[in-house]
TrEMBL record:
UniProt key word DNA-binding: yes
SUPFAM superfamilies: Nucleic acid-binding proteins
Molecular-function GO term, any one: single-stranded DNA binding
Swiss-Prot/TrEMBL keywords: DNA-binding
GO biological process: DNA replication
Organism field: Comamonas testosteroni (Pseudomonas testosteroni)
Protein name: Single-stranded DNA-binding protein
UniProt key word DNA-binding: yes
A Pfam family matched in the record: SSB
Stretch list, region Disordered: 121-148
Matches recorded under InterPro entries: NA-bd_OB-fold, Primosome_PriB/ssb, ssDNA-bd
Length: 148
């Protein structure tokens, strides 16, 4: 059974990337990460504190997996959108069956609350495309935090 999942959380470690073989499309990349989804509430003094939460294993596939592994780091605040799956697995310690929850993400977005700076790549242009500049010059990439 699967459920739609949308949640904000923090990466417990940097994503790990692996390439799996098989399936109808041959090889594919998978990025795996553990994310802590916390719930917050007000305490008696009016401050905000964590009042609960849970860890989930999150996987994302293909080009998004490669980007997640390249760009995300431990502690990053992310928004995860995907399907929460539950299945039975064998516990290595006891040998018994346990219920496991995992999120297969369609997207993992970096939230800006802990970002110091962003640098964008230059746009990819084919040789037949024209420049956006009236003079035909290629524009420098925009860096967040700098005037446009």
């Amino acid at each position: 059974m699967s459920q739609l999942f949308i949640g904000k959380g923090n990466l417990g470690s940097s994503p790990s990337l692996r390439t799996l073989k098989g399936g109808p499309n041959g090889e594919f990349d998978v990025a795996s990460m553990r994310v802590r989804f916390s719930r917050y509430g007000r305490n008696e003094q009016g401050g905000i504190e964590e009042v609960g939460g849970f860890w989930r294993e999150v996987e994302i596939y293909g080009a998004k997996a490669r980007d997640a592994a390249r760009l995300l780091r431990k502690g990053a605040r992310v928004l995860v959108m995907g399907e929460e799956l539950e299945y039975m697995a064998r516990d290595e310690a006891s040998g018994g069956q346990v219920m496991v929850f995992k999120i297969e993400a369609q997207d993992v977005a970096l939230l800006l609350s802990r970002v110091k700076s962003i640098e964008f790549e230059a746009p990819r242009r084919s040789s037949t495309e024209q420049s956006d500049s009236p003079t035909g010059e290629v524009q420098e990439p925009y860096h967040a935090g700098q005037p446009a």
